[in-house]
Design brief:
With 476 residues, this protein is of the alpha/beta class. It is built from 15 helices and 23 strands. It has helices at 64-78, 102-109, 123-134, 136-142, 194-203, 215-232, 242-245, 268-271, 285-293, 296-299, 348-352, 355-366, 390-403, 405-408, 423-433, and strands at residues 2-12, 16-28, 38-48, 52-53, 87-92, 115-120, 146-152, 157-163, 166-173, 180-182, 189-192, 259-263, 302-303, 316-324, 330-331, 338-345, 370-371, 374-375, 379-382, 414-418, 440-443, 452-456, 467-474. Strands 14-23-22-16-19-20-21-15 form an eight-stranded mixed sheet. Strands 1, 2, 3, 4, 5 and 6 form a six-stranded mixed sheet that branches. The longest helix has 18 residues, at 215-232. The protein is globular and about 75 Å long.
Length: 476
């Protein structure tokens, strides 16, 4: 039996805010005698909103009322009532996520849909969400290759590297289309970002607020920005300014990157030639896109055309897969239900090494879930081994214990999700390592991926199993 869900994705970025309404076709693939397993069989975008500049008040807080009225206005244009929407996602990214009232805005928007997934994404999580939306994750899997997606917005370029469907690394550079603003009518520079000003001074380029400029005047600084992007994917060795332009970290270039894709607002002008006014948006975004289109980034690498560009972030929160955990599980405290917990899934390579390598992989990847150096609550997911030996269970437990040390400093319970059946022994080993002083939830027989969110309900069947709902961000 097929059902339809109406889903909304609201994306609030540094420069722009938009929403997408989509219809998700859901089918229960389980037999009548087993637990429901709902999967998305089809998805169609039914409405793409106007794109507005993210409204910010004079005190640098998000203008919550304007955001609410924009969303309401778009629902009216789409002919949709908010009570018709069953599910959705709000993703707050870039500088907007760092505004002090970001959480307040999220809570106010959650009334605009039924069961919302909410992600306040720092640069790493933003890179992952945008790359999945652009289709880089699928492309790497289908073509058995390595691909970097660069999501170029107003303030930053977010990088994500995939190989054979596995997420290898993320990075972020302070390069974007609105780092130099130009008045559309007078062509005078109205804003220069501090790092771009520093780069211009270091290279001896004349660039000042109030200066009237032509596209030719801006080519030297834009050329430098493109060269820094080339350095970020290994086409050039890192130059003297590369570490300065990195937002938090660059990609680890352990292997060659043969393919590239682009998303974000600037990507439209990489894939399409613009014939209008290059200062149409009051910035250098169109010129930056053109410069990338004729650079080694597109000439020397295979360009995978993105499924989405400016709308790459999210279509909605889609597949609500109801599952039941295995019956050999560990939980030491009934702190249920747990809602909307993001998943950090380790790769097969991460799991195949020693406990030290496993710990390092967890430590590195936990940075994806940091915003202003504050770590969000997160569940760690591993495949685990079928019929794992005592030594293998010890390796997993030691690696998880060491790698999750920063999470353990917080009040959160330690939450581990295993695909194969070893949650009881692994959970009990972890509990012992924690001197029985920290709550542990370790469940198995559940399959999740990076970008998923999980709800864990109260124990059922006499406390033997936990019901879980896996929510997947849906990309077009």
């Amino acid at each position: 039996m097929e059902e339809q869900l109406l889903s909304v994705g609201i994306d609030m970025g540094t420069s722009t805010t938009q929403l997408v309404l989509s219809k998700l076709h859901i089918q229960n693939m389980a037999s009548s005698f087993s637990v429901p397993r709902l999967v998305i069989t089809d998805k169609e975008v039914v409405y793409r909103s106007d794109i507005c500049f993210t409204p910010v008040l004079e005190d640098n807080r998000i203008d919550m009322l304007k955001i609410q009225s924009f969303v309401q206005e778009q629902y009216e244009k789409a002919g949709i009532r908010k009570d018709e929407i069953q599910t959705g996602a709000v993703i707050i990214t870039g500088e907007t996520a760092r505004k002090e009232n970001a959480n307040e805005v999220v809570l106010s928007l959650s009334g605009f849909a039924g069961d919302f997934v909410v992600a306040t994404a720092g640069p790493d999580l933003e890179s992952i969400i945008a790359a999945k939306g652009a289709g880089a994750h699928s492309y790497s899997k289908e073509h058995s290759t390595c691909i970097a997606n660069i999501d170029i917005g107003g303030g930053t370029s977010n990088l994500a590297l995939f190989a054979d469907g596995e997420l290898l690394d993320t990075g972020c550079l302070d390069i974007g289309g609105r780092l130099i603003k130009v008045d559309q009518s007078s062509h005078e520079i109205t804003y220069i970002a501090p790092k771009i000003k520093q780069l211009a001074e270091q290279r001896g380029f004349r660039l000042a607020i109030g200066q009237r400029v032509t596209p030719d005047d801006l080519q030297p600084i834009i050329g430098e920005m493109v060269r820094l992007l080339e350095e970020s994917v290994g086409l050039r060795p890192p130059g003297d300014f590369y570490n300065t332009i990195v937002t938090n970290k660059g990609l680890k270039l352990d292997l060659a990157i043969p393919c590239i894709s682009f998303s974000g607002g600037v990507a439209d002008y990489i894939y399409h030639e613009s014939t209008g006014d290059v200062f149409e948006f009051g910035d250098i975004g169109i010129l930056l896109g053109r410069a990338i289109a004729s650079s080694p980034l597109t000439q020397q690498l295979t360009v995978a055309r993105s499924a989405e560009t400016i709308r790459a972030t999210v279509v909605g929160a889609g597949s609500h897969t109801t599952e039941i955990s295995g019956s050999t599980i560990t939980y030491t405290d009934e702190s249920f239900p747990i809602k909307n917990l993001p998943i950090l899934k380790l790769s097969v390579v991460d799991e195949s090494g020693s406990s030290e390598q496993l710990a390092k992989a967890i430590t590195d990847k936990l940075d994806w879930f940091k915003l202003n150096n504050d770590l969000q609550r997160v569940a760690i997911a591993i495949e685990g081994k079928k019929n794992a030996s005592f030594q293998e269970v010890q390796k997993y437990a030691q690696g998880l214990y060491k790698g999750m040390s920063e999470l353990l400093e917080r009040e959160y319970p330690l939450i581990v999700i295993v695909h194969h059946d070893l949650a009881k022994v692994l959970g009990q080993t972890l509990y012992a390592l924690l001197n029985y002083k920290k709550d542990v939830i370790c469940i198995d027989s559940v399959q999740v991926d990076n970008g998923d969110y999980i709800d864990i309900g109260k124990p059922i069947a006499g406390g033997k199993v936990l019901p879980v709902v896996i929510k997947t961000l849906v990309f077009h």
